[in-house]
Amino acid sequence: MKNAIVLKNISVSYGSSDILNNVSLSIESDYPTCIIGKGSSGKTTLLKTILGLVKLKKGKIIIKENMNNNSNNFGVVFQKDALFDSLLVWQNVMFQSLESENDNKLIIKTKRILKSVGLSPQDAFLMPNELSGGMRKRVAIARAISHDPKFLILDEPTAGLDPIKSTLIFNIITKLNKERKMTILAVSSDMKGAIKYFKQLIFLDSKRVHWKGKPSEALKEPTKLVGEFLAKV
Fold it and tell me: What is the DSSP code string of 63-92?
């Protein structure tokens, strides 16, 4: 069985305002998926709902995985990184295990994970304020994958980065999908990156999924709304 996130007719409201309305979709491990759409279309809310941070008004979310359930199914990369400024890089990466495992073991594991995201072993001993924006993103990814999650959720993983650093981040995401068989779900405003590096796009509009398909389909035969959106980015 493949890892998958299945949403069945979910709706979400903030107070009296509907944010998502009757959304149904399936995200599988073979298809790194990127959610696109206009501002305030519910993209980040959709991620938060999958993670259980936002309560469903109605509908159901089913998490399918090829191993038994555990408490560490999801790795999350937040838009603003959310690193702890008072902790060293290795302590940030291994934050979930600081109280339960030996420091030396955690440092060794951190160095191995940092290498997988293009950082050096010496970076493990830096403070977050010593990191560039691109390095902070990679540390955030390292933390997200430190417990070998089945699902990696990323909210605007290249926000604030220049094209070269953005390409590096997208390449890391692609590599993780291939090597670790992670189910990847991201929200991104970087349309060039979304089209080039993801196998499936989901276009949110008017509180629901308006279109879902391959990037090549979005470019060649878009719906009117998708075509208008892509023409403006």
Answer: EE-SS---TT-EEEE-TT----TTS-HHHH
Task: Note the pLDDT tens digit of each residue in 90-132.
Answer: 999 999 888 777 888 999 999 999 999 999 999 999 999 999 9
* Confidence band for 1, pLDDT divided at 50, 70 and 90: low
Total-model pTM: 0.88
Which ranges in the chain belong to alpha helices (H)?
43-50, 89-93, 103-116, 133-145, 163-180, 191-197, 215-220, 224-231
What six digits make up the tokens of 201? Answer: 């796009």
Place of tokens 């107070």: 15
Whole-angstrom distance, CA of residue 136 vs CA of residue 129: 9
Domain definitions of the chain by residue range: 84-148
